[in-house]
Amino acid sequence: MDGSAGPSLYPLHRCKTIHLVRHAQGIHNVEGDKNYKAYLSPKYFDAQLTQLGWQQVDNLRKHVLNSGLLKRIDLVVASPLLRTLQTAVGVFGGGDYVDRTDVVPLMVANAGNSGQSAISSLNCPPIVAFELCREHLGVHPCDRRRNINDYQFLFPAVESDEDVLWKPNVRETKEEVAARGLNFMNWLWRREEKEIAIVTHRGFLSHTLSAFGNDCHPLVKKEICKSFANCELRSMVIVDRSMTGSGSSTTNYPGKIPPTLHLPSDAVEKSHDEKDDANANSVD
């Protein structure tokens, strides 16, 4: 996000469009919003979406379809927790799954006791689960995820890794979450995709955007750091002003004409430029 005072031009390959999504309502949100101590309850381990949460997913999916956004997204990155994966595949997946031998589902039927039909991996962007964009790590059972074998069964077409970050007795500080968020943003820059959806958590978004927006105008930072509602989507363009982002554009074209017996076009242009400079410096 560019915080400069006036308009600036940047090469397209130095920009990315990101679509930030907070997961839909989880079972832990219902009680946790009433009493924060509910987040400590083991019964909310790797909390799944509520039925209201699935309605929120359906509404957001209609939006990304009707707006044409789904066709533009190159990649979906999700936190590897049940509620974020359910949200990601429900919003950005391929719709109802039709059983066939050559295609695996993104999500099997009734994953996480959801009561939902299986979701197809056809005609949708790739979806990957990535550890760095998780919620606060440690202590809260709702933020601890299942093992990789469970996820491979529930989400066969989603890439995932083992959980090596969560600790039962130590809760991440806000500063540690922000640092992890900045590492996540650096990871995004190293990818070639230009339009990426990220399905994650309110706390992670709040602390990451607060740190990432330090060079923005205060009004811009205030806007981007507003708390996310369940299943809210915000689209942002971020600019790599350090020029350390991904490689050169694949759509640029040099515009040169192959040399022939005639003078190359760039040499002709150089000759014209030299004549223009000479005329500009002459005195009548």
Summarize the structure.
The chain is 33% helix and 12% strand. The chain contains nine helices and seven strands.
Task: Describe, in plain words, how this protein is organized in 3D.
- The protein has 284 residues and is of the alpha/beta class.
- It has helices at residues 27-32, 51-66, 69-72, 82-92, 148-154, 174-189, 202-212, 218-224, 265-281, and strands spanning 15-22, 75-78, 105-107, 119-120, 127-129, 195-200, 233-239.
- Helix 2 runs parallel beside helix 4 (82-92) and helix 6 (174-189) crosses helix 7 (202-212).
- The chain is globular, with a radius of gyration of 24 Å.
- What structural class do you assign from the helix and strand content? alpha/beta
Approximate shape: globular
Sequence of secondary-structure elements: EHHHEHEEEHHEHHEH
**β-strand amount:** 5-15%
- The low-confidence runs, each spanning 5 or more residues with pLDDT under 50, are 1-7
- Quote the distance from N terminus to C terminus: 51 Å
What oligomeric state do these chains adopt?
A: single chain
* Helix count, DSSP H or I runs of 4 or more residues: 9
The main pleated sheet reads as:
5 strands, mixed
C-alpha Rg, in Å? 24 Å
How do the strands of the widest beta sheet line up side by side?
Answer: 5-2-6-1-7
- Name the helicity range: 25-40%
Average of the residue pLDDT scores: 82
Number of strands: 7
Give descriptors for this structure:
284 residues, 7 strands, globular
